[in-house]
Amino acid sequence: MLNRQRSHHTTTSGRAAHKRGYLVEKIVRVYLRLKGYKILEQNYRTEVGEIDIIAQRRGIIAFIEVKFRQNKHDALHAVPTKTQRRICRAAQHYIAHAHRYTQRNADKFTLRFDFIAVAPPYYIKHIPNAWIL
Fold this sequence. Notes:
The protein is of the alpha+beta class. It has a single domain (12-131), classed as Trna Endonuclease, Chain: A, domain 1 (3-Layer(aba) Sandwich). It has three helices and five strands, in the order H-E-E-E-H-H-E-E. A five-stranded mixed beta sheet has the order 1-2-3-4-5. The protein is globular and about 45 Å long. The N and C termini lie far apart (45 Å).
């Protein structure tokens, strides 16, 4: 018999968390657009990692991790070094494969890693340059 592992999306709490995460990221994308960002990618997945949002504003391409927690403190401390490294690897993949980011125009863009912490009821904190590659 096959040993099937249940996805966290198959449980009631897993589906609720996935739905909440989707809604939070949607709110953050609207927030970023209001701040003048153009959303280039959302939930960019590669074999080396995932990036929640890739956005551009002027000459900046921001690789953005979004974390929702039940309080501000937990939200602000929700991106460990291991997660940062995973996002960096995914960003390198994006840079290598993105048509808008080529060797010819690489000097036109500044790359950075941003973090957006979200907590109820209305807390959204955007931290530009949250870590360095």
